[in-house]
Amino acid sequence: MGRGVEWAVHSCVNMAWTPPGEPVNSARLAEFYKLPAAYLNKQFQSLVRAGVLESVSGPHGGFLLARRPENITVLDIVLALEGQDPAFRCEAILGNVPEPVRQENFARTCLISQTMRQAELAWRQALARQSIAGIADSMERRFPADKVKVLDYLAAE
Amino acid sequence: MGRGVEWAVHSCVNMAWTPPGEPVNSARLAEFYKLPAAYLNKQFQSLVRAGVLESVSGPHGGFLLARRPENITVLDIVLALEGQDPAFRCEAILGNVPEPVRQENFARTCLISQTMRQAELAWRQALARQSIAGIADSMERRFPADKVKVLDYLAAE
DNA sequence: GCTACCCTACTCGGATATGGAATGTCCGAGTATGCTCGG
DNA sequence: CCGAGCATACTCGGACATTCCATATCCGAGTAGGGTAGC
To answer: Any CB–CB contact under 8 A between B90 and chain A?
Structure first.
């Protein structure tokens, strides 16, 4: 899994903490976490395309959550960055055997493919259970200092 | 996820079908599925190192299951080929912030890392529930022709 | 003093390099088989 | 005829290319804000 996922989730949590409607400066955020600014920006673009974030150009511009944090799950972010396709793709090598049995859809009938789909489904469900709002709340409850530090840093010019 | 996983699981199922103690020729198996022989061999080597397969050199050599098929899970194969490390690695970017709070282990306390671990655990448990023996049995029940075709092909010189 | 215009600075957006891992290929090490030669 | 030794063919094992994607970077497009000039 790409590194950008961790960055993106942290960033979304921070955006959940900032007042709604107020964009967060991408470069400033990268500076805060010591991340490559341009690359973080690139990841945000994927999130915009996926409908997780919205972007504001120009001075005082930046990124902000496109939906309420309760309606954004970790799965949304992961899928936006890693792509919608499941990790395991059945190449249907059963279709390569000599004189293959006529079969419309190997991926549907193949038991291996089914096993992989089941596992991926469990994985996605676990990620879909965690919303940005939930993570933000728990984090604030357990590490209240982090929130004020971020907000202070982003507010400071 | 690498392509080799699908090949390896199919191959292990076939090895579960062949008489115990009798090695399966890697090149012949690759020919059957129209796979690059040397590369399939390379994947098998990883499985040998992981203790899933055993190898026999020389004429009439090949690979065979190192344990009874009931004791080999799909997870064993995936971990052998993809590595033991979880897909998500917490880089603890919280430790990069200015004046970070003293914390021994970010990965343990970070909620994002916990979420990812939970999801990966669910994924692994789903894969660990499926044994090679189980897949082999179900496959034989639903597609009995496949088994005889494989065994015939491997038996033929 | 007020308003309309322009100019500048700032930020996102996509096109462009780079590195490392997954993929694919090749030749050497080791072994069982079958043949040969001697007893 | 029988057995030991040897040559051979076959298979695994790891070292060596190649391709592709994640990573990283840069410059152009568009916009908000402020400054300026005219009324």
So the answer is: yes
Give the CA radius of gyration of chain B. Answer: 20
Residues B99-144 pLDDT 10s: 777 666 677 778 999 999 999 999 999 999 999 999 999 999 999 9
Taking CA atoms, B139 is separated from A104, B129, B134, in Å, by 17, 16, 8
The answer for residues whose C-beta is within 8 angstroms of residue B48's C-beta and 6 or more apart is: B54, B55, B63, B66
Q: What's A53's DSSP letter? A: E
User: Which domains does chain A show, CATH number per domain?
Assistant: 3-84+131-155 (1.10.10.10)
CB A29 within 8 A of CB A61: no
Please tell me whether any atom of strand C lies within 7 Å of the Cβ of A18. Answer: no
Q: Which two tokens stand for residue B16?
A: 């579960």
Task: Give the minimum alpha-carbon distance from B21 to chain A in angstroms, rounded to a whole number.
Answer: 24
B39 in reach of chain A (CB within 8 A):
no
CB contacts of B156 in chain A (<8 Å) are none
For residue A39, give the nucleotide whose C1' atom is nearest its CA.
Answer: D24
Contact B101 A138 (CB under 8 A): no
pTM metric for this prediction: 0.92
Chain B hits for A150, Cβ within 8 Å: 97
> What confidence tens digit (pLDDT) does each residue in B19-75 have?
999 999 999 999 999 999 999 999 999 999 999 999 999 999 999 999 999 999 999
Of residues B6 and B110, more confidently modeled: B6
Q: What is the pLDDT of residue B98?
A: 84
Residue A35: name the closest of B38, B148, B95 by CA: B95
Task: State the average pLDDT over residues A35-44.
Answer: 96
Question: What is the reported pLDDT for A80?
Answer: 97
Helix (H) / strand (E) element for A63: namely strand A62-65
CA of B84 to C1' of D2 (A): 56
